[in-house]
Structure to design on (536 residues):
């Protein structure tokens, strides 16, 4: 594999060159260059497989160089090296397909491991693997699927009875090598990374897997990781002599992952440590306590290692707090008052925050209860919310990925207010539809004998109710609106046509010319012929 090294500091270039045993990796450094222009020339000349580059260089910076390099030779792996907080550069580099972003000072093991990963992917892509290697990969993929199935079938869906969850049975069915010792679940929660940026998610997931295996694998009999959106589930099995070491290594794992904040500006990571159990059948307890620890980041803060506790959850929904909030929420919705609605949510947030021994679990459950109460009360008040069930499910998923109490309630307020305003607007449009239909009918039929009874019957209301509703919605009586409609049309005829006043009288729905003239004069302060002389 051909390699180019690009950095404006020659010392850095030489350090990278000397750190790696290129021959052992079956790689060759074709060129060392010191600016973006030289790097592009070298790429055109050598068509390298790997470019190792600084993100800031003279000529073209690293990002511009990568963009241009992709145009010349798309099939290229880029390793970016940087010692600075270049968030925007990093984001764009990841979008350009850069999977390896190393921070200075460069470490030999990290650089070598990165090159080994790239080489393995390169060989597989180029189909240059031996039959033996291809078979090994096929077997590994099958084994990986089996091992992942343990999470879904045993831990999550609990398809096996407790007496069926033994080391022997699990090892045989799911291809593990569990030994007697401790069994534990560690949850690694990633906050601050948008689901819409798949490149960012893939990038940080790779870094999580690398850090976990690097820090923990030497101390464990078994280790397995799977991802579900922004959560990494780590299952470990280790001997009693490693228990204290594991705890320390979890802290160094977190410290290593937090270095990625130099690349992903909003990255927040929390480790939830489940209780270590001595039997594999009790892994579900470890998972439950690890989940509790992750939720507890709302109280204790993010970017920490939080120890799980086997605690019973308070039924806060039956407390005086929820009763008072419930009353405020219902009152605000019955009065259709947005300020009162915001105050109700703010009351819940403040009360929970000031409540003694509030847990993260309570915060999340209460936010969901508040959302559910809003949707239920709106339905009770005949305000239909489209896909209310889907809205609740999306909200419930989204708040699992928010790391602070303030942000959860800010999001809750925003979602409810947007829905509230939309529902009121749709209700008003629904209420206005009969009036819109009536006005349209009058515009199309004003030449005919239009009456309150005819129009109210057309829109399906009794005349008395329709008359009241029409005045409320338009600010005019039915008669005033019809007269205005006819007079405005009469003004158009007088200005734009040569029709006689008598003819215009008929065209706008009057049968008596004298009555028409009197009505027109009252509306415009001019008789029809006077109006024509002035405006025609």
């Amino acid at each position: 594999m051909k390699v180019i090294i690009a950095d404006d500091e020659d010392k850095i270039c030489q350090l990278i060159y000397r750190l790696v045993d290129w021959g052992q990796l079956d790689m060759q450094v074709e060129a060392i260059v010191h600016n973006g222009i030289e790097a592009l020339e070298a790429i055109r000349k050598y068509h390298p497989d790997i470019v190792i580059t600084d993100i800031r260089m003279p000529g073209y910076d690293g990002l511009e160089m990568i963009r241009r390099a992709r145009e010349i030779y798309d099939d290229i792996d880029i390793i970016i090296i940087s010692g600075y907080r270049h968030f925007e550069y990093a984001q764009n580099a990841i979008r350009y397909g850069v999977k390896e972003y190393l921070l200075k000072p460069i470490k030999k093991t990290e650089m070598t491991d990165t090159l080994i990963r790239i080489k393995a992917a390169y060989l597989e892509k180029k189909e240059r693997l031996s039959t033996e290697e291809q078979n090994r990969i096929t077997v590994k993929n099958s084994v990986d699927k089996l091992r992942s199935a343990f999470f879904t079938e045993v831990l999550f869906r609990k398809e096996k009875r407790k007496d069926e969850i033994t080391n022997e049975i699990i090892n045989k069915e799911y291809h593990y090598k569990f030994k007697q010792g401790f069994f534990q679940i560690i949850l690694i929660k990633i906050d601050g990374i948008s689901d819409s940026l798949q490149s960012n998610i893939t990038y940080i997931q790779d870094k999580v897997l690398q850090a976990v295996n690097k820090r923990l694998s030497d101390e464990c009999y078994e280790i397995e990781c799977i991802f579900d959106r922004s959560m990494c589930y780590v299952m470990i099995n280790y001997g009693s002599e490693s228990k204290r070491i594991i705890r320390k290594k979890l802290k160094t794992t977190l410290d290593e992952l937090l270095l990625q904040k130099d690349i992903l500006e909003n990255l927040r990571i929390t480790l939830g440590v489940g209780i270590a159990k001595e039997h594999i059948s009790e892994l579900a307890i470890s998972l439950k306590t690890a989940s509790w620890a992750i939720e507890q980041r709302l109280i204790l803060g993010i970017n920490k290692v939080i120890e799980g506790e086997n605690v019973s959850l308070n039924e806060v929904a039956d407390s005086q707090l929820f009763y008072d909030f419930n009353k405020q929420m219902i009152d605000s919705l019955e009065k259709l008052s947005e300020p009162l609605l915001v105050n109700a949510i703010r009351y819940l947030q403040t009360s929970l925050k000031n409540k003694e021994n509030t847990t993260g679990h309570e915060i999340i459950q209460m936010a969901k209860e508040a959302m559910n109460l809003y949707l239920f009360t709106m339905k009770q008040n005949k305000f239909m919310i489209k896909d209310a069930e889907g809205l609740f499910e999306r909200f419930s998923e989204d708040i699992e990925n928010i790391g602070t109490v303030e942000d959860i309630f800010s999001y809750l307020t925003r979602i409810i207010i947007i829905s509230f305003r939309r529902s009121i607007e749709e209700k008003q449009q629904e209420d206005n539809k009969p009036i819109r239909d009536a006005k349209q009918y009058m515009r199309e039929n004003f030449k005919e004998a239009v009456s309150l009874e005819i129009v109210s019957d057309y829109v399906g209301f009794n005349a008395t109710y329709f008359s009241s509703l029409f005045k409320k919605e338009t600010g005019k009586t039915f008669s005033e609106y019809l007269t205005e409609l006819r007079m405005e049309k009469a003004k158009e005829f007088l200005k734009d046509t040569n029709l006689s006043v008598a003819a215009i009288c008929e065209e706008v729905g009057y049968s008596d010319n004298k009555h028409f003239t009197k009505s027109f004069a009252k509306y415009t302060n001019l008789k029809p012929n006077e109006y024509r002389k002035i405006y025609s």
Summary: The chain has a mean pLDDT of 88.
